[in-house]
Amino acid sequence: MIAETTLRMIPGYDPWRDAGDCTFDMSAAERATGFFPDMLRHVEGEWAGRPLELEPWQQAIVANLFGWKRPDGTRRYREAFVLVARKNGKSLTAAGLALYLLLADGEPGPQVYCAAADREQAGIVYRDAVGMIVQNRELKAACRIYRSYKSVEAGNAAVFRALSHEAYTKHGLNVHGCIVDELHAHPDGDMIDVLQTATGARRQPITVHITTADFWRPESVCNRKYDYACKVRDGVIADPAFLPVLYEAAESDDWTSPATWRAANPNLGVSISEEYLARECERAKNEPSYQNVFRRLHLNIRTNAETAWLDLAQWDLGGAAFDAGSMAGERCFGGLDLSTTVDLTAFCLFFPESGRALWWYWIPRDTARKAERRDRVPYGAWTSVGDIAATAGPTVDYVQVQNDLLAICETYRPVDVAFDPWNADQMAKQLIGLGVPMIKMRQGYYSLTEPTKALERLVVSGKFLHGGNPVTRWCASNVMLEKDKAGNIMASKRYSTGRIDGIAAAVMAIGRSIVQPPVPLSSYDDGREMLV
Questions:
Q1: Are residues 380 and 426 in the same domain?
Q2: Which of 212, 449, 507, 517 has its Cβ near the most Cβ atoms within 10 Å?
């Protein structure tokens, strides 16, 4: 018999609280939980071929889903949201649920679907389900497998099919069960809405969302469902048909602590080891660009973007003041991030021999107060002490910026100055005519990956000496990275939480410093450009 303590293992949620006139049917719960070890086997790894024994936390989910009944005998729960960290057996659990709904739920002609964001993800649960079927003689005899269609059919018109968001049938479905895999990866709720509205003709349909945490995105279907689940769990919304299962760490928890890891990883010590999480955590400590990956995927803490980059504690290691005037004559490289007419413009000089960097910033005086309210930083105070130059008028005075740049370059004589050609072509032409060696740097992974990684290495090692510039420190705190499938990275103006202009300028300057030998442009019309 399943213990009541097991049923109450859903974090922060009491299934009896909003049960109303629903009752718990122990025989139905045991039938569902027993299906897993009796009929299913692990399909890969060290446990391949062994019975799929449910861990207590998995028993709690399955028993609650299938044990609670309404007065008419149908299932109480019609929807569940299961938030659990990576490598905790989500796909196996999803595959087992799909097969139970297909073969053992007592529904005439059940249609069961696994909804995934793309074809590759759709194939994971399907592959696990097929792997379970072929290991059981009884299931294999009862099912017909159509791998090319990612479909399984059984007697009495029963069908299980994996659907991807980019290729699914929108109409004509009669859904008994829907397993939504990795909800956070779905670009919108269209597919899920179609599948859920296709359950209307069934007596006791069920939709189970199984996912890790999403980013902080207001348009996210996963975040909307997560917020709803939190309110049901906390009693803010009374929805007896919705089961909220949230294994997550709190944002304020110490993400380096094993106690925190346990909160989001109920299968710790089974399918995921503490040793593995310790290694991942150590990597996140040493690579700031990996910290948000660790926090989101292994702790279910929603983050602003794929990767939060610079750790300010490490950044501050390079904050000791130094004499900028003494650096004239030292070899250096420049990076110019020229803003649109109303935003912050940044120029950085990087001195590779000493690891030092200098910045200059400009902002329109007439819009500085509005920008201060928007960005919630003290532009007024920074301009009053000279950390930012306020140009006359409501837009950035490019003439003043150009004159200031010319004076700076006459003092420090950079080998060359990198710029983004998207909005700085005209100024670059003029500066080249005045003797400043300007060079184009395209703003993409190809050009920015290596200098971005170089800056990260300098910051982590404490060798990036920035003199404690407060504007740049603020920019550093805002930077989020984008990463492509090949592991290339670049600072993201789309995902970052505020202005990152100072860091963008520094990355370009560092990019020039690591290109050997230096290749300055003598003429803008050469058409040459820097490609790292």
A1: yes
A2: 507
287 and 392 in a common domain: no
Judgement on whether residues 277 and 355 belong to the same structural domain of the protein? no
| DSSP line for 297-319 | HHH---BSSSEE---HHHHGGG-
SS3 40: coil
Strands 111-116 and 307-308: unpaired
pLDDT in tens, 472-511: 999 998 888 887 777 788 988 776 767 899 999 999 999 9
* C-beta neighbour count of 196 within 10 angstroms: 18
R_g (Cα) of the chain, nearest Å: 29
Cis geometry, peptide bond prior to residue 517 (ω within 30 degrees of 0): yes
> Residue 25: which CATH number?
3.40.50.300
Q: Is the pTM of this model over 0.70?
A: no
CA–CA distance, 419 with 430 (Å, rounded to integer): 13
Instruction: Compute the distance between CA of residue 525 and CA of residue 353 in angstroms, rounded to an integer.
Output: 31
**Residue 309 covered by a domain:** no
Residue 253 counted as domain residue: no
Which residues are CB-neighbours of 319 under 8 A, at least 6 positions away? 466, 467, 468, 473
- Calculate the alpha carbon distances from 443 to 334, 446, 448 in Å: 15, 8, 7
Number of domains comprising the chain: 3
State whether 172 and 221 are in the same domain: yes
Give me the sign of the Cα torsion angle 321, 322, 323, 329: negative
The answer to whether residues 296 and 483 touch, using CB atoms and an 8 Å cutoff, is no
Per DSSP, what are the bridge partners of residue 151? 146, 161
Q: Which of 262, 341, 327, 349 is nearest to 300 (CA)?
A: 262
Cβ distance 342 to 394 under 8 Å? yes
**Quick one: tokens of 358?**
């200098």
List the structure tokens of 530: 């820097």
Instruction: List pLDDT tens digits, range 339-398.
Output: 766 678 999 999 999 999 999 999 998 888 888 888 888 999 999 999 999 998 888 888
Separation of alpha carbons 430 and 348, rounded Å: 19
Domain assignment present for 251: no
Residue 136 is which amino acid? N
Residues 206 and 279 reside in one and the same domain = no
Range of the domain at 442: 314-530
The residue count for the chain:
532
| % of the chain surpassing 90 pLDDT | 67
Q: Which two tokens stand for residue 410?
A: 């006459």
DSSP 32: H
If residue 24 lies in a helix (H) or strand (E), which one and from where to where?
strand 23-24
Report d(CA 256, CA 431) in Å as an integer: 49
3-state secondary structure of 140: helix
C-alpha 278, offset from chain centre = 20
